[in-house]
Amino acid sequence: MFTILTVLCLVFTLHCSSVPVKNPQIQREWMLISFEGYDKQDLIKSNAKIDLTSTIEDGKIKGGAFMGCNRMFFSSEFKKDGKVKISGIGSTLMACQDMKLEDSFSKGFKNMTNYKVEGHFLTLTDDNGNSMKFIAADWD
């Protein structure tokens, strides 16, 4: 009887473990391809990207960004209604020769309120019509 009870407890415990929530449509690495007046080739040269590959915890994804100099970090919450909330933006503090893209990105990124995923593209927009367009890094 003890053996059966032990096995049942073990099975129950294994089935109750939490499974990380995954949203493969969002949780990818995204390369920035369109932002303000920046040329696409300059964005590619800077290796401009955001990383949303970490697990979702309490509905939020801890993300990272790189615009050619400092590593940035943030928290993001993608809602089913197309709304996004970006918060807790911070970065390393290296002084680089050209930080214009990084400065523009961090100022604009925190204001993004909407998102849309179409195929391999992620577009973020704010309430004033400003946008950032990304392409999935794993797309050929």
Give the % helix.
10-25%
Categorize the overall geometry.
Answer: globular
Structural category: alpha+beta
By DSSP, the count of extended strands is: 9
Question: Can you summarize the main beta sheet?
Answer: 9 strands, antiparallel
Unreliable spans: none
**C-alpha Rg, in Å?**
19 Å
Number of helices, where a helix is a run of at least 4 consecutive DSSP H or I residues: 3
Calculate the mean pLDDT score and round it: 89
Q: Helix and strand string, N-terminal first?
A: HEHEEEEEHEEE
SS strand fraction: 35-45%
The first-to-last residue Cα distance is: 57 Å
Index terms:
140 residues; alpha+beta; nine-stranded antiparallel β-sheet; 3 helices; 9 strands; 21% helix; globular
What are the SSEs and their pairings?
Layout: H1 2-15, E1 29-35, H2 40-45, E2 49-51, E3 56-57, E4 60-66, E5 71-78, E6 84-91, H3 100-109, E7 114-118, E8 121-125, E9 131-136
